[in-house]
UniProtKB/TrEMBL annotation:
It comes from Teretinema zuelzerae. Residues 67-188 form the MotA/TolQ/ExbB proton channel domain. It comes from the Bacteria. It is found in: Cell membrane; Membrane. InterPro entries: ExbB/TolQ_transport, MotA_ExbB_proton_chnl. This is MotA/TolQ/ExbB proton channel family protein. It is a multi-pass membrane protein. Belongs to the exbB/tolQ family. One of its GO terms (cellular component) is plasma membrane. Its main location: membrane. Keywords: Cell membrane, Membrane, Protein transport, Transmembrane, Transmembrane helix, Transport.
Length: 207
């Protein structure tokens, strides 16, 4: 197997580097997103129970126990609970604008790696074919079959390897984009619920 990869020529070096980068990003993002899901599972009900009792410090402390975008949005909303509804929404939206880039971190790199791996495979195909035609040009139609086969092999190996790297990277890239969109939607819903809850509690105490 290693000898086959070596036969792919110099283009295999950046393809291998692309594979390493894609693998590291995929593992890091899988761990990151799974941690968010686990932490947010029962976050809002716990915060709602504390706010219903008027225990805002306890609700903020609950937010500190969970490392996730929603928990930070909730804590921001709780901190601005004495302000107007518009001010609470603005503060939370400002925090959301800071959280979204964290969710999308490294995804553009992963998408770039997926595209580059395909192009590198194509580049290897072109250079391999150039080498093969060079062999035919130098030695004529009865050129050395072993040299010709090596050049063709280089073209095929780089193409296959580039696709092997690119296809999983594209799949995970699209999966992660879908996860980010889902999380953003959940953030918006959670924030709306929190703002309504804080405003309702504020009106209750004003009566």
């Amino acid at each position: 197997m290693f000898s086959i990869l070596i036969g792919g020529g110099p283009v295999m070096i950046p393809i291998a580097l692309s594979a390493v980068i894609a693998t590291v990003i995929i593992i890091e993002r899988l761990i990151f997103y799974s941690g968010i899901k686990k932490g947010e599972r029962d976050l809002l009900p716990r915060i709602r129970a504390s706010i219903d009792k008027g225990h805002y410090d306890e609700a903020a402390a609950i937010c500190d126990t969970v490392e996730s975008p929603v928990s930070r949005l909730m804590k921001t909303g709780i901190a601005y609970r004495d302000f107007s509804e518009a001010s609470i929404k603005e503060a939370v939206m400002n925090q959301a604008n800071r959280e979204i880039p964290r969710l999308e971190r490294y995804l553009s790199t992963l998408g770039t790696v997926a595209n580059i791996a395909t192009l590198l495979g194509l580049l290897g195909t072109v250079t391999g074919n150039i080498q093969a035609f060079g062999v035919l040009g130098d030695m004529g139609s009865m050129g050395n079959p072993a040299v010709l086969a090596g050049a063709i092999s280089e073209a095929l190996v780089t193409t296959a390897t580039g696709l092997i790297v690119s296809i999983p990277a594209i799949i995970f890239y699209n999966y992660f984009i879908a996860e980010v969109n889902r999380m953003v939607t959940e953030m918006e819903a959670s924030v709306s619920d929190l703002v309504l809850l804080l405003v309702a509690e504020k009106k209750k105490h004003e009566v």
